[in-house]
Amino acid sequence: MQVDRYIRAYYKQTEALGFEIQLPPDATNLSGFTGLPGGNRDFGGGYYNVNIFGYWWASSSFNTTSAWGRYLVNDDFAVSRDAFDKHSGFSIRCLKD
Fold it and tell me: When you count CB atoms within 10 A of the terminal residue's CB, does the N or C end of the chain come out lower?
C-alpha cells in the first residue's frame, strides 16, 4: 500500500507553540488534514500515548470486535493501518460532503 503523501506529517512538541508540523519535502498537504498526537483511550478508561501517537478510526470493520484504524507516530512520516478493539477511544475526523 502506498502512503498518501498528502496527509503524512511529522509533528513534534515545542515549548512555545504546542506542536510544530513539518511536512516531508515531497508533500503538499492538499488534503488539509493535520493530525495531532491525541493518543488513545483503552476500554478500561485509561489514556495513553498522548503526544506520541495520533489515532483515527477508519469507516470499516475488521471483524465483529475490531475495526480498522490509522495512526501517525510523532517521529515518523508514515501513515499506518491496523485493526483495533472497537472499545478503544480514538480521535475522529469530520468530513464534509
Answer: C
